[in-house]
Amino acid sequence: MSGEAFKVLECPELGRYAVTTKKLKAGEELFEEKPFAIGPKSDSPPVCLECCVPVDGSAFGPKCPQCGWPLCEECVRSVVYHKAECDLFVKNKVKFQNVDDSTAGCVQLDCITPLRVLLAKEADPERWNAEISRMQDHREERRGSTFWDADQKNVVEFLRSECGLKDRCSEELIQQVIGILEVNAFEARTSSGYTIRGLYPKLAIMAHSCVPNVVHSIHPSKDYRLTARTAIDVEEGSKLYTTYTYTLSGTMVRQAALKSTKYFTCQCKRCLDPTELGTHFSSLKCQKCDNGVIVSSKPTDEEAEWHCTHCEYKLKGAAMAKAIQVMQAEIDELAYMEYGPERLESFERVFKKYRSVLHPLHFINTSIRNSLIELYGRIPGYMMPELPDILLERKIELCKDILRVNDVFEPGKSRSRAMLLYELHAPIVVLAQSEYAHGSLDGEPLKKRLQEAIALLEESSEILKWEDPTTPEGILANVAKQSMVQLRQSMEIANLGK
């Protein structure tokens, strides 16, 4: 598989990977592809098998009139993704067993996406052989684990016995499909914002890095078609990298996720650097000296010792992991609080609590900043027009702090950067309006402040225009454009010019 912009190579360390065949500019399209199959993530609660919106899985919940499996009322009239499995369930009289708790994982749905891959294999054997069959599935690493045993019971045996696939699919084939999905599937979101997973073979060829140079957009309104682009300028002959982890997690967290789900240890430049490319994204402040920070002696080893950069203080890897676990648990609890003033104030208290412990750019601080950015300007008592200047400046500071690390870990034209730029423009505008009203900002300084906000909106909308217009990001692209027009009109009315 190759394209004009890249070619596919292979080596024992990386397997198949892609390198550029020419110099590429940031934002240049690499390829477009449709998913081989899409469906619910494993351990999903009851969801509509067409649009994946959460549904009531009890006897009173909405069901497909043909097979009786979960299907929301809006999707009953027209099914695309659910049709093939629906026919199979009807033919073999496979019934959905109603559940008492519709918020818990529903093991019955674990079979859906593997089944869709198997049915797609039968429908398009040529694409299976060309693009899917060679994908890594790590069967040997998975074999004998608790995950393997659960999949054997809930998926393999269920599909072969109840669903009548015994003569069509071997146990090894189904386990291969389960492994391919676990190792290679990418998360996608429906137009309503619910997460699903999709198998995109071209994107899966890209090597992994915790500092990717490839970004992608998935379009639910176009049958979940994916478009991949370069995030930054890439020289000819360079490797193309996507990422299988959340880039705003610390190295310890990313490594654990990659080992447990992708079965490899990442050796990218960020993972090998104890300072995470100078950000100190996982570093703690030393409590024994004034200027030291605590970093790992070997970031890719979870048991490695942590030590201070200025004194003799040391900490075992297990102790560091426990400390992070405790802090993260406290933050996770706040996420369940009602969306209101108390939630915002609790996040600010926790941020202040850990200020003396964590490096300013630590990933836990960064996650708190993300939560605060989302809350400031959107909840009663803290709506944007209500914010005093000091809190407008606070939101500006929060946005710029995250941009500092985002520009290191997701450089260039990334969706996360675009969202942050949009968040940043609003407090800049409202603060400028406040200072103008108080007579402390006028003329050229006011013009520069508004021009800064317009530039942020312009860059944000230019990146978000690649998103599906039905998604929150695609909708925001239009909002950003409209805000840009309004700001320019305001400048003309105020006779500030261009």
Automatic annotation (TrEMBL):
Q: Which SUPFAM superfamilies match?
A: SET domain
Highest taxon above the source species: Eukaryota
Signal peptide feature range: none
Indicate the segments forming the SET domain, all copies.
Answer: 4-245
Instruction: Please give the InterPro entries that the UniProt record associates with this protein.
Output: SET_dom, SET_dom_sf, SET_SmydA-8
Q: Which GO terms describe its molecular function?
A: N-methyltransferase activity; protein methyltransferase activity; S-adenosylmethionine-dependent methyltransferase activity
Q: What PROSITE patterns does the record point to? A: SET (PS50280)
- Protein name in the entry: SET domain-containing protein
